[in-house]
Specification:
The complex is a heterotrimer of chains A (917), B (170) and C (426). Chain B is an alpha+beta fold and 170 residues long. Chain B contains seven helices and four strands. The chains are: A alpha/beta (917), B alpha+beta (170), C alpha/beta (426). The structure holds flavin mononucleotide (FMN), iron/sulfur cluster and FE2/S2 (inorganic) cluster. FE2/S2 (inorganic) cluster (FES) binds next to loops of chain A.
């Protein structure tokens, strides 16, 4: 720590940081544009000017850019004395700005507006022509309005340097500098949405939001958690007039930091979908016709199933909803709504966390790792935010080189220039090339089982007490040796795997590697992705029960309650069909119409994450609370509340259920810490969901009634559905969208952090439920079932846009998704005699288009999960028969250009070969 | 994005053997392909007169660089022509020494004679007129280049003669 | 004993004759410095150059040997010498002369400098428009390879060196040494922040030295003939010779090699023959478009960086540009600012967005549309673009002719407000 004096005030600062970051961390107002807490400094915008004095006698000082300066202990600085320069800088930046704030999506939450006011530039003196640009069509997610650009370079620094995108960049020069693509077209990065938040003005905007736009102060929002995958990024959804308008990032420095993936940001359209279940229905047993019933009747019919029905829970429903169902049907009758295989995988993950000396790595941890091996998990498509974190991990070599040369770690450009593309090692082993191959030291194409074998061998190479693998090829041996060397040499080695390939041996191999890395020092770091937002929560709630969906189907039950779960996505259609038709009574609670709901005779409209509150547990075992953003129509309720019977009261507050679930969970008491408590208030007032500047409260319904209606009440406490109340700004467990005096944009978040770029005031990380056990090193045996395959060996392919059930039904996601297909090696394409115009007959499951991918091993076939036109669950057989489908026409929803692949022209050696980069 | 996926975007053309030969030669000077980007664009321009989208994509393909990266470089430099130019590019120096000695008058003269402003190309595709910063021959101002040749101490008469010669060559 | 030349930079130059071939150059005493350098310890060579007092000829004038000495000890990895031959500073035309007419002098200088720096590869970053220079250099390099002066084990030693010419494509900012490094890497030529200095982390993150053409052309002489000889070449307490010249309405515009320390008057009145008949000297830019105007009362200053700085300007490239009494100073500054605004790389705000505004006001003034408030904005702009406020020296350089014009010709600015430009346009 160092002490500095700024305009007479004394601050403690970290001399290893840049002065700007330290000034902000001390809550001072200093304008900036090009700097970003996640991206470091480059010093291009010249907005953060300060004066530095050489010594006590120095009266004039020297102007510096705070972001490019390391604070000196004992030195004297001034913010005030550089005010004139900062005003000049903003004035010249604004010479070509269009001043179109009334029609600009950024209006009211614009960093440029804030900085302009803060710098004191109000009167326009420039009377010349503005330089103007043409805009590009950047696809369905991001709007482009280049005239608003102030050339701060943040977009390219984020898109290229941070997120590794290659299809976007700066063009031209001087005051014609342009930020765009070589040609019009959809941005390829899966993280493009962050541009809208990174851009300090309205050049890059959320196009989905623009279509039904509202000002920031007209949005009602709450602290929430993205429900689109097992990472559980923190978000702020925004609602107006009963529709969910947008999602923006909510800082959680351990999970998502400042960035989201595009599925999470743009995938919530299903909340507003016309396919939403908005009424409650009974379906006539004799002609299947639905009849609308009142919520009261719906509830009593549901509760009437108590004692008769089994309950099928859901990995995409909250802990509370699953718990309420479990209470309703009883522990023995509660089944996890996941397939037999998935149940096994998830149990395996829980067992690993509970019994091995390993620690699940958070996103932040991943970013700090300096050697990584990925075993068979295409994280870009299954848990995208992790992929963005891995892109940061490979930069640690550059940081280390910089440290050796005593270059400050904030010096972004210098570190990149020094590293010149040299990266910390990242190895990827799996059945197909992935989006991260460009940063991989080596990519090795291997079947799921072979990937596990290699994984076990790596563990053995790291620690000879781990079981060995005998039959490795020479290429595999050298791969294993090279990985082991790099992991050994690393300060923070990491292994990443997951459930998506449905191969338990992969999880065990990963556990062995992490175990082998443990102890030196601390537990071994591991990431095991979970498929859905609450997969792990559901599993922990099973409390030792082995009730999978498969067991439910064998239970002989005559009645069932299915919670937020389309069972057709979990097992072959025929099996599910048999099960459902064998039931006399089926009650379904869900958000959207689906095949399971169609079979139900009682359908209850369940609120989505945006309309309900509850708890999700992410892949690390991190429990996080989400607050309802808005109140749905009276017919729609949260599943947790639908399912409650008298034991908790008919309408218990959510915390009661959270508390109930807590009793079943390891470290369940920690769930209490997720909120400030149901009875929290500040001087009698709750926390508002709307901003203090909410403009339309009275006018909102003026065309219907000139009297202001009573505001909706939140029975769960803590937050109001209005702008009344006191924003608990310094309590990050209820941290809603940030807003501070003078700082109307998302940049204001620093006002709520302990240190700029870091943790929020009061822990808002969520709570880790699983302690790292003080376990000895124990090993999984390296036994791998090698399936004997006739026909093609299939493996699942996940799609960020399309595989997840709910987001797939959002319009914006559909624009980036494709219909089903199969992916084959070009040699197999030839072997099957497929012409470009042919399709592929997949066993008895109809025909689909095919995609030739060089990175897929001959004899194997990638089958996408969840895309329309093919049901993966129907195809899970040891060997798949593929045949040419002639007279074939590609379906309309076949959009190959939407497929995220990266095996362009690769000359991959398969199976036993190694592809180096 | 996989090249195995059908796409409607403009496609790279094939580089000619001469272009490939010259690019390969440049490659021998640098440890990384990216460093050859600008040289490769200039090579293409030498043979094609300008750098079309198809040419840019071809170079990007050949050097395995993202086209967007290369476009950022191509558009940064004044002398990479991303639009077609005439057979003879007239680079008229408009910097201070030439300005003092009358380059504005010469520009007016050329505009009158050829009917083109800065940035324009004659209908017969023979000439494009572009201003260029100081050509490092200030002691012989005014100065211009046509193609690879620098012409010094210009007057309207010498310019006419140069234009005549180009027109005679066709 | 041979008499040593007092024009080491231009002794081989004869306009109109083809440059010397390798053999001719060697016969004229060339390539002696290579052998001498190979026999010395690299650090001693650097010290020698430092002691000679040679200052960089690219504009800043920093002691060359001292600049070299910041390069770390070899670590087995590549190290680079880059010659800055981008010459685009308006009014500067010296490097072109050296390269077109005596390319072997540069090649020899680069080899010798590379020995001192233990460079493994050397590049000439050449302005793309310099076609004649490109041809001459390529020929000279090919000859040097053939003669064993380049490539593996040069001149039979253990030292190996390659050399290549990189031709640019017209961007003034590429002359800034860190932007040049980015350009050489094939990136957009935005400058880099210093520190780290290129000597430590330059081309591809490796130790790199960037020197001007003329700077390097001084090396053979210094190494061959020694420090004392070099020091004796200068006058007024200076070492060596440099190329200075004059453009504008003088009788004999041109450039000449002369002792460092020569006065402006000598250059303008003796070398360049004084002003053309009917024109009087109103002011002059001492060293390129990015230096402050000096006035006739400064004519007797010796061309020494410190002395020129005291007079409120910079020696820069020491290529003078005279402003005569019949040329509008505002028009002259407008022309310069237009150049700088266009050549701004677009990286930092004051330059990218400030210079176009200045250009706009100067145009208004020329057209008689300017106001006194506009003149205030021009004054402010000079402070706004002061050194340290921008990312590199381009914009501060651009502000220099403007601020000095405001200082010396304020009455004419005010005159323009009321009446526009009354000077005859040529
Ligand atoms: C905008 C700008 C343009 C420059 N252009 C040149 C140039 O064309 N040639 C040159 O030698 N130096 C140029 N310089 C100076 C170089 O940055 C660098 O100082 C010089 O090449 C170092 O060589 P020296 O030490 O031999 O003088 C320029 C500097 C700036 C800021
Ligand atoms: S002053 Fe700034 S914008 Fe201008 S050339 Fe230098 S870095 Fe680029
Ligand atoms: S934030 Fe410091 S220069 Fe941009």
């Amino acid at each position: 720590m160092a002490k500095i004096t700024v305009d007479g005030k004394v601050f403690d600062v970290d001399p290893n940081n840049n002065l700007l970051e330290e000034i902000l961390s001390n809550q001072q107002d200093l304008p900036y544009f090009c700097w970003h807490p996640s991206m470091g400094s480059v010093g291009s915008c010249r907005q953060c000017a300060m004066i530095e004095y050489a010594n006590d006698d120095d009266q004039r000082g020297r102007q510096i850019m705070a972001c490019m300066t390391s604070p000196r202990d004992g030195a004297r600085y001034s913010i005030d004395k550089a005010a004139q320069f900062r005003a000049q800088a903003i004035e010249s930046i604004m010479t070509s700005h269009p001043h179109d704030c009334p029609v600009c999506e950024e209006g009211g939450e614009c960093h440029l507006q804030d900085m302009t006011v803060m710098s004191g530039h109000t009167y326009r003196r420039y009377d010349g022509k503005k330089s103007t640009h043409t805009n590009q069509d950047l696809g369905p997610f991001i709007g482009h309005e280049m005239n608003r650009c102030i050339t701060c370079y943040r977009c390219v620094r984020y898109y290229k340097d941070y997120a590794g995108g290659t299809d976007f960049g700066p063009q031209a020069s001087h005051n014609h500098t342009y930020f765009g693509r070589f040609q019009d077209g959809a941005l390829e990065s899966e993280f493009s949405g962050n541009l809208a938040e990174v851009c300090p003005t309205g050049v890059f905007t959320d196009k989905v939001f623009s279509k039904h736009y509202a000002r920031k102060w007209d949005l009602q929002s709450s602290p929430s958690v993205c429900a689109a995958c097992g990472v559980g990024c923190n978000i702020n959804p925004g609602e107006r007039y009963g529709t969910l308008r947008r999602v923006v990032n909510r800082l959680n420095d351990q999970v998502n930091g400042y960035f989201l993936c595009d599925k999470g940001r743009f995938g919530t359209g299903y909340v507003n979908s016309s396919e939403r279940l908005r009424v409650n229905m009974v379906r006539s047993a004799h002609d299947g016709r639905p009849t609308e019933i009142s919520p009261t009747e719906a509830k009593s019919r549901l509760l009437a199933l108590k004692g008769k029905a089994i309950g099928i829970g859901s990995p995409r429903a909250s802990l509370e909803a699953n718990f309420a169902l479990r209470q309703l049907v009883g522990k023995e009758n509660f089944y996890a709504g996941v397939s037999e295989v998935e149940f096994g995988l998830l149990s395996q993950i829980v067992e690993i966390y509970k019994s091995r000396p390993v620690q699940a790595a958070s996103i932040r941890d991943i970013e700090l790792c300096d050697a990584v091996v990925v075993l068979g998990e295409d994280v870009t498509n299954t848990a995208a935010r992790i992929a963005l974190a891995l892109r940061q991990s490979v930069k640690n070599l550059g940081r280390e080189l910089a440290a050796k040369m005593k270059l400050p770690q904030w010096h972004d450009a210098a570190i990149r220039n020094l590293a010149q593309g040299r990266k910390s090692p990242l190895y990827i082993i799996g059945p197909a090339a992935s989006r991260l191959d460009d940063i991989a030291k080596q990519v090795y194409i291997a079947s799921p089982a072979d990937t596990a074998r290699i994984g076990f061998a790596i563990a053995h190479a790291l620690d000879s007490t781990a079981p060995a693998v005998t039959d490795l090829s020479a290429a595999e041996q050298s791969l294993v040796a090279s990985i082991a060397t790099d992991l050994k040499g690393a300060k923070k080695p990491l292994v990443v795997s997951g459930t998506s390939l449905l191969e338990p041996a992969l999880l065990q191999a990963a556990a062995n590697i992490a175990t082998a890395c443990s102890g030196a020092p601390g537990p071994g770091r591991i990431v095991l992705t979970a498929p859905e937002v609450n997969s792990l929560g559901l599993m922990l709630l099973m409390d030792g029960s082995q009730n999978s969906l498969g067991k439910a189907m064998q239970s002989g039950a005559r009645a069932a309650i299915v919670l937020e779960n389309d069972l057709y996505r979990r097992a072959p259609a025929a099996t599910i069909g048999r099960f459902l038709s064998g039931l006399e009574q089926l009650a379904v609670l869900d958000h959207l119409q689906n095949r399971t709901g169609e079979a139900a005779n009682l359908v209850l409209a369940a609120g989505t994450f945006a309309e309900t509150s509850g708890t999700f547990v992410n892949y690390e075992g991190r429990a996080q609370h989400f607050y309802a953003t808005f109140k749905p129509a009276p017919e729609i309720r949260s599943s947790a509340k639908w399912l409650c019977d008298t034991e908790f009261g008919a309408e218990p507050r959510i915390h009661v259920l959270t508390g109930g679930a807590a009793a079943l969970l390891p470290n369940g008491y920690k769930l209490q810490k997720l909120t400030p408590g149901a009875d929290w208030n500040f001087a009698g007032a709750r926390a508002p969901r709307q901003h203090h500047r909410y403009s339309g409260r009275t006018a909102l319904r003026a065309h219907l009634n000139v009297h202001e209606p009573k505001q909706e009440q939140d029975e769960d406490g803590i937050m109001n559905y209005s702008m009344e109340g006191v924003p608990p700004l310094k309590d990050s467990t209820i941290f809603s969208s940030p807003w501070a005096p003078g700082w109307n944009s998302n940049q204001s978040v620093f006002k709520f952090q302990k240190h700029t770029g870091g943790e929020l005031l009061q822990s808002g990380h969520g709570e880790l439920l699983l302690d790292v056990p003080a376990a000895d090193k124990t090993w999984f045996a390296a036994v791998i079932q090698k399936p004997v395959v006739e026909g093609f060996a299939l493996f699942p392919l996940y799609h960020l846009f399309g595989s997840e059930e709910l987001t797939a039904r959002s319009e914006a996601i559909q624009a980036k998704a494709t219909g089903a297909y199969v992916a084959l090696n070009p040699a197999d394409v030839e072997r099957l005699g497929l012409a470009a115009s042919d399709g592929v007959q997949v066993q008895h499951n109809g025909a689909v288009p095919y995609l030739a991918r060089a990175s897929i091993a001959p004899g194997t076939v990638g089958v996408p999960v969840g895309l329309s036109g093919l049901n993966f669950q129907d195809l899970v057989t040891p060997g798949l028969a593929l045949n040419k489908a002639s007279n074939w026409q590609n379906p309309k929803d076949w959009r190959a250009s939407n497929i995220i692949v990266s095996d362009a022209g690769s000359t991959t050696a398969y199976g036993r070969g190694v592809q180096g980069r | 994005m996989s090249n195995l996926i059908a796409s409607t975007a403009p496609k790279a053309r094939k580089l000619t053997p001469e272009e490939i030969h010259d690019i390969e030669h440049e490659k021998t000077h640098y440890p990384y392909a990216q460093a050859v980007g600008l040289e490769a664009l200039k090579i293409v321009q030498k043979y094609q007169g300008w750098v079309s989208d198809e040419s840019l994509l071809a170079v990007a393909d050949y050097l395995e660089l993202p086209p967007d990266e290369l476009e950022g470089v191509a558009t940064f430099f004044n002398m990479i022509f991303r639009r077609p130019v005439g057979k003879n590019v007239i680079l008229l120096c408009d910097s201070v020494a030439c300005w003092m000695l009358g380059c504005d008058g010469l520009k007016a003269h050329i505009t009158k004679r050829l009917g083109i402003e800065y940035g324009q190309t004659t209908a017969d595709n023979l000439f494009t007129l572009i201003p260029v910063p100081c050509l490092g021959a200030c002691d012989k101002a005014p100065v211009m280049m046509i193609g690879n040749d620098t012409h010094r101490n210009l007057t309207p008469a010498t310019i006419d003669a140069l234009i005549d010669a180009c027109q005679a060559r066709g | 004993m041979t008499t040593l030349t007092n024009k080491p930079l231009t002794k081989n130059i004869e306009i109109g004759r083809a440059p010397f071939t390798f053999a001719q150059y060697q016969a004229a005493g060339g390539y002696q410095s290579v052998g001498k350098a190979l026999a010395m310890k690299p650090r001693d060579l650097m010290k020698l150059v430092q002691d000679s007092g040679l200052g960089g000829r690219g504009g800043a004038g920093f002691n060359t040997g001292l600049k070299w000495s910041f390069i770390p000890e070899p670590d087995g990895g590549p190290r680079y010498l880059v010659v800055n031959a981008d010459e685009m500073e308006p009014g500067t035309f010296k490097d072109r002369l050296l390269m077109e007419h005596d390319p072997h002098l540069l090649v020899e200088g680069m080899i010798t400098a590379s020995i001192a720096l233990q460079a493994t590869m050397s590049y000439i970053f050449l302005r793309g428009e310099y076609k004649e220079a490109e041809a001459a250099l390529l020929k000279a390099i090919a000859e040097a390879y053939e003669a064993g002066m380049l490539g593996q084990h040069i001149a039979g030693s253990t030292f190996s060196l390659d050399m290549a010419v990189h031709t640019s494509a017209g961007r003034y900012i590429c002359g800034e040494e860190t932007a040049l490094i980015n350009a050489l890497e094939g990136k957009r030529a935005n400058p880099r922040f210093k520190p780290p200095f290129p000597q430590v982390s330059g081309l591809w993150g490796r130790p790199t030295l960037v020197n001007n053409v003329e700077t390097i052309c001084n090396i053979p002489g210094i190494v061959s003939h020694g420090v004392d000889w070099f020091k004796a070449l200068g006058i007024n307490g200076q070492s060596g010779t440099r190329i200075s010249g004059v453009s504008g309405r003088v009788k004999r515009p041109g450039c000449w090699e002369m002792p460092v320390g020569t006065t402006f008057r000598t250059v303008i009145e003796e070398y360049a023959g004084g002003m053309q008949d009917g024109y009087a000297l109103k002011a002059f830019l001492p060293g390129g478009g990015s230096t402050d105007f000096l006035m006739p009362e400064h004519l007797d200053l010796p061309m020494i960086p410190g002395d020129v700085a005291k007079a409120g300007s910079r020696l820069g490239t020491s290529l003078l540009m005279v402003l005569d009494d019949k040329t509008c100073p505002i028009g002259c500054v407008h022309n310069l600012i237009k150049f700088f605004a266009h050549e701004s790389c677009g990286w930092c705000t004051p330059c990218r967005d400030g210079l176009p505004w200045v250009e706009h006001i100067l145009l208004k003034l020329e057209r008689g549309e300017g106001t006194l408030k506009d003149i205030d904005i021009l004054k402010e702009a000079c402070g706004y673009m002061a050194p340290g406020n921008t990312f590199c020296a381009l914009a501060p350089g651009a502000a220099e002719p403007l601020q000095s014009a405001l200082k010396y010709f304020m009455d004419e600015f005010v005159e323009h407000v009321n009446h526009g430009c009354k000077y005859q346009r040529h």
